[in-house]
Task: inverse folding
């Protein structure tokens, strides 16, 4: 019976959502049999200490809130869950079950997750399989935002050995772009980097940016720029 307690706690936080990619809610259910298969096949329990949850919450992408997330699997099934998060350090989607237990989802089985209006998806390039925010996605161009942790050592007063600043992780954002027929490229939010990505369409894009008074350094403006590029 003891082995089922974590499972039952986990199941109580789920609501079924539509298996289609529309993300429409079809309601909740108390039928535990609907959850047994996902629990057994889509991830595993690990200790909070092993996952990193017991050490430092700053290594998680999202604040620890009660926001609702939606997670969709490649097998056309999905769930709505409140305590979902992404561990940037371990590159795992996790659900923290308490001080001692974390459920880690199998990244290879996840299609995408949604938080508010934002979509996050795993892509395997650069430094391996990681979660990226899809800022813009079409058949012609992909614009992604990735996340990296930088560990900063504690700052200690050499005279007194007193800790002035605790050791911690700092989150850094990084951007990548990909046009059809090419590989992903790291890009800076600068004119030269963006126009280089867009190749022979760069002059048309640059004119559009100038006429529309957009900025290459603005994430929101870049989405507008890529929407325009998508029409060329």
Result:
């Amino acid at each position: 019976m003891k082995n089922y307690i974590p499972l039952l706690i986990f199941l109580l936080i789920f609501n079924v959502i539509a298996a289609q990619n529309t993300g429409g809610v079809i309601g909740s259910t108390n039928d535990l049999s609907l959850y047994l298969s996902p629990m057994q096949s889509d991830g595993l329990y690990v200790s909070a200490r092993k996952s990193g949850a017991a050490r430092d919450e700053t290594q998680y992408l999202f604040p620890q809130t009660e926001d609702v997330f939606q997670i969709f699997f490649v097998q056309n099934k999905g769930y709505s869950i409140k305590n979902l998060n992404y561990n940037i350090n371990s590159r795992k989607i996790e659900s923290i079950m308490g001080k001692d237990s974390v459920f880690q989802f199998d990244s290879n089985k996840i299609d995408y997750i949604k938080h508010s209006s934002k979509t996050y998806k795993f892509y395997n390039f650069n430094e391996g399989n990681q979660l990226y925010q899809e800022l813009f996605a079409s058949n012609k161009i992909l614009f992604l935002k990735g996340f990296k942790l930088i560990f900063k050592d504690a700052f200690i007063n050499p005279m007194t050995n007193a800790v002035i600043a605790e050791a911690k992780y700092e989150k850094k954002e990084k951007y990548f772009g990909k046009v059809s027929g090419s590989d992903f490229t790291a890009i800076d939010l600068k004119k030269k980097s963006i126009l280089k990505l867009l190749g022979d369409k760069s002059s048309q894009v640059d004119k559009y940016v100038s006429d529309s008074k957009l900025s290459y350094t603005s994430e929101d403006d870049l989405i507008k720029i890529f929407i325009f590029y998508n029409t060329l």
User: Anything to note?
Assistant: DSSP finds six helices and 15 strands in the chain.
